[in-house]
Design goal:
Helix content: 25-40%
Largest sheet: 4 strands, antiparallel
Strand content: 5-15%
Shape: globular
Number of helices: 12
Number of strands: 9
Length: 350
């Protein structure tokens, strides 16, 4: 059965964002668990290369989606393998944080963003530029408040969980995500940066680096990712629409394909249910209900960390949607992108 969508309105919504210079171009798609999909590719890859249009396989720095594609999925692999208890305090099994403030926090606290860890701040300003010092600072710093008092999104949670995944698996986050998630799902064009030159040439450029004056293309926009060599829990993954479509279809119908990643239906179901009690916004594990959505009714979920690239999922409707842009080409303030993103989501799940 074909998707019932107002495709013309979706197309106009995104095209107007391109026309108004919210972003140079975009790749959008809406699909379902049966494999039906509609997509659009308005705009150009780079305003300086106006003859090069966006394509369905344009490579994007997906920024905050890294927390889902790499960290959330890798944590799910460890949980389903029986190697990680979500409710155990980190200090009970992780010597690096034992006796530290972070030792009294659980993995579930971090996944629901209720751990009380520090909010945004320049890692270099706080801890210097040596990656080892940065990692130590992240794990040893004080918390802002006891767990469970507030939902406060911070990339600190993703950085901590990225390190935890590496500690428990004995592998780098990039290697674990690739072998346990991306390769089994056929996501052959998903990887952490910096990208090889030939791949970077097909990548949507983002902002101009403040220190070098060079426009970033194939190197992560997020300073945290660059500081840590390209691989960290908060950002740094590059991917293409076909890979994201394969990932989101698996979330809607885990266990149905031939090749399977290390997490399945149990992890998806646990993550896409409200777990923050009376706290707002209502959230699951690294996923939250989209603005205006109601658990059990609209049931539209999005990652806590969103930016120029966003994905949504509705198990009830059996539908997913993706909007990929390089809005940071114009500005790192995504305020003008929000109305486009919200309108697109509303139309995709109408």
């Amino acid at each position: 059965m074909a998707l019932e969508l107002d495709i013309d309105r979706i197309r106009r919504t995104v095209e107007e964002g391109v026309r108004d210079k919210v972003c140079p171009g975009a790749v959008w798609a809406v699909g379902d668990r049966s494999g039906n999909m509609v997509l659009g590719t308005p705009g150009v890859l780079d305003p300086d290369r106006a003859d090069e249009p966006m394509r369905h396989d344009t490579v994007f720095d997906v920024e905050g989606l890294t927390e889902i594609l790499a960290v959330w999925s890798s944590v799910g692999c460890l949980v389903e393998a029986g190697e990680l208890d979500l409710d155990a305090h980190l200090g009970d099994f992780w010597s690096e944080v034992r006796g530290r403030p972070l030792g009294r926090v659980s993995t579930r606290d971090l996944l629901t963003h209720t751990a009380g860890v520090p909010l945004r701040g320049s890692l270099a300003s706080l801890y210097g530029t040596d990656p080892r010092d940065v990692r130590d600072g992240i794990l040893h710093d004080a918390v802002r408040r006891p767990p469970g008092q507030a939902v406060e999104y911070t990339e600190r949670a993703t950085l901590v969980l990225g390190r935890l995944v590496e500690e428990l698996s004995g592998r780098g986050l990039d290697a674990l995500a690739d072998t346990e998630v991306w390769q089994p799902l056929g996501m052959t064009r998903t990887r952490f940066g910096p990208l090889p030159r030939e791949t970077a040439d097909r990548c949507a450029p983002t902002a101009v680096d403040r220190h070098t004056g060079i426009r970033l293309r194939g190197t992560a926009l997020a300073a945290s990712a660059r500081l840590l060599g390209g691989v960290c829990g908060a950002s740094g993954v590059f991917t293409v629409l076909p890979d994201l479509a394969a990932f989101l279809r698996h979330l809607l119908q885990p266990g149905r394909g031939e090749a399977q990643p290390g997490f399945g239906a149990a992890w998806v179901q646990e993550s896409l249910r409200p777990q923050t009690g009376e706290l707002a916004p209502a959230g699951g594990l690294f996923w939250r209900l989209a603005p205006g959505a109601v658990a059990g009714a609209d049931d539209v979920w999005e990652p806590h960390g969103s930016g120029a690239a966003t994905a949504w999922l509705s198990p009830r409707q059996g539908r997913w949607a993706v909007l990929l842009t390089n809005a940071s080409y114009y500005t790192r303030d995504y305020g003008s992108l929000v109305p486009v993103r919200d309108a697109f989501r509303s139309l995709a799940f109408a």
